[in-house]
Specification:
288 residues; mainly alpha; 2 domains; two-stranded antiparallel sheet; 9 helices
Length: 288
């Protein structure tokens, strides 16, 4: 765990691991999205502004949803903190998607053509953000015993970390806790970073073989949603069980996967019946 990276020379300003990785995530995602948009003959100059607004509002909404879930007040100080482990990814994604819908409509760009550029960028940013969470000790995994699957990958956190406080104070008597470290937990942030990397690989692979706009977005989001649902039980704050072993996040994930599949089928049918096949990357009125 390395929550602080360095102090800016000549100042008392300390750069946190999560803050640095979050900034890197936003910049990397912005650059990749605009490079892909330019390659797809989309107006990258105008879409750059859409991306910035969507990202900022998405972060604020992700924080706001998390605060509401925790029963905390929505003060400006709490909203702008953006700490590791203090945001809800799908709440932020919904807000960012809404901004993208409005922005694309205003500038006359096909929404799915833009989302095909955003999906790989989102995955790239998620890799950096999850690495930051791992370094900061946020969103840590659940306890993993010596005989449990995944123990070989388990990590511990030092005194003062969220995991240590939970294990030493709230969950007293948990095996493996000492004065020097928390009990071993799943490095779920690393698992999620690997999932984001897989999402990026799938998005770029589909991008090279796409037949119509939307294929990249639907494929990438399906991988990400399915992976998050599978990883949810490994988080220390896993969603509650609702139907036997199935948790809320997994049932929600199945619902989202169904929505993505239906939307992809509708888009494929539209492409098959539309002259030009809805191949937004080949240009249109927005490219002139």
């Amino acid at each position: 765990m390395h929550p602080l990276l360095f102090t800016v020379p000549g100042t008392e300003f300390v750069v946190s691991s999560y803050g640095f990785c979050m900034g890197l995530a936003l910049v990397a995602a912005w650059v990749l999205a605009l490079l892909l948009a330019r390659s797809d003959r989309l107006p990258s100059d105008r879409l750059g502004s859409v991306f910035v607004v969507a990202a900022m509002l998405g972060l604020l909404c992700a924080r706001a949803v998390w605060l509401q879930q925790q029963g905390q007040a929505l003060s400006w100080e709490a909203l702008r903190g953006l700490p590791a482990g203090g945001m809800t990814v799908f709440g932020g994604a919904f807000a960012a998607l809404l901004v993208s819908v409005i922005g694309c409509r205003r500038i006359g760009v096909p929404l799915l053509a833009w989302l095909d550029c955003v999906a790989p960028a989102f995955a790239l940013g998620a890799i950096a953000e999850r690495v930051g969470a791992l370094l900061a000790g946020g969103d840590f995994g659940r306890y993993v015993g010596a005989e449990d699957l995944g123990h070989a990958l388990a990590i511990t956190y030092p005194p003062g970390s969220p995991a240590f406080i939970l294990h030493a104070v709230t969950l007293q008597g948990l095996p493996g806790v000492s004065e020097l470290a928390s009990a071993p937990v799943h490095p779920v942030q690393a698992y999620e970073a690997a999932l984001a990397l897989l999402t990026l690989v799938v998005a770029l692979w589909v991008r090279r073989r796409r037949r119509h706009s939307g294929q990249v977005f639907f494929a990438a989001m399906a991988v990400f949603v399915a992976g998050r649902a599978l990883l949810d039980p490994l988080r220390h704050d896993a969603s509650p069980e609702l139907l036997g072993p199935l948790r809320l996040a997994q049932i929600s994930g199945l619902g989202l996967l169904l929505v993505l599949w239906i939307a992809s089928q509708v888009q494929a049918a539209r492409a098959a019946s539309t002259p030009g096949g809805l191949r937004g990357w080949e240009g249109g009125s927005w490219s002139k």
